Amino acid sequence: MLGLYSLAIQLATPLLRRKLERRAQSEPGYAVAVPERFGQYEISPRTSGASSRPLIWIHAVSLGETRAAAILLKELRELVPEMQLLLTNGTATGREEGKKLLRGDDIQVWQPWDSPQAVRRFLLNFRPDIGVLMETEIWPNLVAGCKARGIPLVLANARMNEKSWRGAKRLSWLAGPAYKSLSAVWAQTEADAKRLADIGAPVRGVLGNLKFDSVPDAKLLARGREWRATSQRPVVLFASSREGEEAVWLQAWLRQRESFASRNQQVQWLLVPRHPQRFDEVIALCTEAGLSVSRRSAWDDVPEAADVWLGDSMGEMAQYYGMAHAAMLGGSFEPLGGQNLIEALSCDCPVIMGPHTFNFAEASELAADAGVALRVADMEEGVLESVRLVNEPERWSDLASRCHAFTSAHRGAALSTALAVVQQMRSASPVVTRD
Fold first, then answer.
1. Which of 187, 402, 410, 417 has its CA 20 to 30 A from that of 131?
2. Known catalytic residue at 27
């Protein structure tokens, strides 16, 4: 079965190259270091004088996983200060965010395409002491290659929703052996652990969600609060909105705007699309509807007056949450699974979330039970509830004050996971293979 999969992957290689070329037209980052995708590298750490240092490989496919990796990496550096980092990413936004994590002679390359040849070259070139896959990324040849070479490969901050579990069950002939061949899996929740174990993953514990250990950048948060104070209206952030959601938001807002005005319920909208290549698209959508838009990139000391503020920068989410009195959760108003609501709550920003939060199911339910996140049925209700909340100062203040206590109560996963990774690395026995 693995042989048939490998053949399919090999045949799909030209399609991947064309896909990268197309993506690079809107996101130039996809044109960077393309040979790395296929196992061709300009550096080999094991021959550069660093062979005696532990090389810890972390794979974080995209932006969210890279931010979770940053939290884990901080603890790993405390436990293994002499470590060298090998960071792999799969998306341009993940790679750009990952640059911030590098120190000294740390290495960042693209995730190898899951062909036997690319995986073999990757593992022979770097020979990591341990591999840490973040959250969901399982590639059959990569797992098989690590097992054959005695490289412990673990899945940290692991999650698996119902949809992914059903897909893995349908492809059990391929997914089952891959999950079973991992060295260890540490799940976010009991539900994740149950689903992972059901497909054969070696679940070693439920350690919680690393993202609860995230600490917002104090300078960004403070600047956001300063900018919020310049607004004459309470600020509602539509955070990490996804394709199609802004159009539905706009329709809902325009339908309700006169009703809000008659009740003297004002609001300043702040939109931060999830994907940077869509900034211009969202601006066009708003301006065509007659709304004025001010881009973050055009601001000097303070935001410019406009119907809509657009957050068109990377790495400033703490600033945007600091600006907001409340945040609507992107990805939750369409069946996309939602985005990370923990980041908002760590900035004392209450959340309004739609019905689709399966990617953060337990965190969403815990937040709803604690009263720091409000569940609504659809976008119409989301807009209505957001505007109501920020125009009720006492109610908003109560929710905001609960956010810090909520996130603090769920911290600790980062240290527990780092300790488990280090123990797994130090207990591994090398296996000599013929290549």
1. 410
2. no
